[in-house]
Amino acid sequence: MRIGELASSTGVSVRALRYYEEQALLIPGRSGGGQRHYDEAAVDRVQLIQTLYAAGLSSRTIHDLLPCVDAKVNTPQSRALLNAERDRIDRQIDQLVQVRARLDAVISSSEAPANGCAYADATPR
């Protein structure tokens, strides 16, 4: 399939696919005229890349993990990398929970009549 077809199949922009290629995350075949061609496995590859990006992994980390994924090999290095990423995500979750608690406190304070804030109704009159 061509790059536009892969973009349509995955919901990822052509620009993003080109970026994946620049980062060596996605390697297309080439026609005699230099046009990119992808096999059906590229759809799964792009979805995996998107999932890893959504989890907060960098393109460098994804690049380092993909050979293990391709070879279906779980190495001590890949496990260490995945555990480090999980720890990073756990720290982010902890920080977000703290921010949410602070925001809840601000909301509660702003809604309390004793705080001196005037309450404005957002409904149009």
Tell me about this structure:
The protein is mainly alpha-helical. The protein is 64% helix and 3% strand. It has five helices and two strands. The chain has helices at residues 3-10, 14-22, 41-54, 59-71, 76-111; strands at 29-30, 36-37. Strands 1-2 form a two-stranded antiparallel sheet. Strand 1 (29-30) and strand 2 form a beta hairpin. The longest helix is centred in the last third of the chain and has 36 residues, at 76-111. It is elongated, with a radius of gyration of 23 Å. The termini are far apart. The model has no long low-confidence stretch (mean pLDDT 89).
Main sheet summary: 2 strands, antiparallel
Instruction: Classify the secondary structure makeup into a structural class.
Output: mainly alpha
| Total count of helical runs of at least 4 residues | 5
Range of helix content: 55-70%
Strand content: under 5%
Q: What's the quick description here?
A:
The chain is mainly alpha-helical. It is 64% helix and 3% strand. It has helices at residues 3-10, 14-22, 41-54, 59-71, 76-111, and strands at 29-30, 36-37.
Q: What's the SSE blueprint?
A:
Blueprint: H1 3-10, H2 14-22, E1 29-30, E2 36-37, H3 41-54, H4 59-71, H5 76-111
Antiparallel strand pairs: 1-2
